[in-house]
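Appendix B, Record 12. Input sequence as logged:
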Amino acid sequence: MEFEQIIQELGKKIYHPVYFLTGEEPYYIDQVSDFIEKNVLSEAEKGFNQTVFYGRDTDPMTVMEAARRFPMMANQQVVIVKEAQEWKNLEALRKYLAAPSKTTILVINYKYKKIDGRTELAKALKKNALYFESKKIRDYQIPQWVDKYIRDHGYTITPQATQMLADFLGDDLSKVVNEVRKLFILVPKGTQITADHIEKNIGISKEYNPFELTTALGNRDILKANRIITYFAANPGSNPIQATTGILFSYFSRLFRYHFLANKSESEVMKQLKLSSPFIARKTIEEARRYTPTKLFEIIGMLREYDMKSKGLDTTGEVSQGDLYKEMIYKILH
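Logged structural output:
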């Protein structure tokens, strides 16, 4: 079952006896678990009928005993296990899954990994529980995710602002949501969120950020690119070179792939390269034409090299982050 369907069911008070929430992306797991924790029982019912365990402090047998109890002055009880990935004997759950209590909603949060689907436990979970796997979103999907999340909450956002958030905040969805919610508090509903809003309320510079760096490199604007990396070097905490090389690697890989598309129309480029908007597609087409496939292949290899150097590998002596930035950008543009 997909995340949206689970939330819709919960909103309609359609509950399952057991929820097993697993996977590499903790955001969706937390959303489902928190919804159940906050909304299934009334405040008066929670005192006697809602129990929260933590994996490192308990074990499956203790949780199963709690789940077998009858609710007090309520139709059901809620038992939630957080950080269940800490359990060593997860297989013990099979006994409870064979006959789960009809008056208990048991929620098991098993984050950052998933169980082996070939095991008897996995089969029992998929048969007798709501089994939800929260998959990690890929880097290229983040701009689209940010755009949809913002639109779902009654706002719109410019492509530049979307990319700024995606580049700066990365693929940590909880972090992205926390920052975007700050905007929702400070910006009237229905507003189009721009780079100015991002700069003013989140603190990401609209002039000195990875999106603007890729634009400068795409335009082969030496002066602007050097101004940006000088700013990055002076603010290493906000602009670590490892994060920047990762963003540049994705960017130049996209330009490289463009050259080998059979159909280079804007709509097909957007589809094949999984871009978030026609604006980014047009930008990609224009900027890819300024680099030959051979040069792009060379840049991609160079970025790997500078990523290693930034981690202290393949270097002699101590080299500052600023020096690495300058060398890397010079080689890209020449």
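The chain has two domains: 3-133, 142-333.
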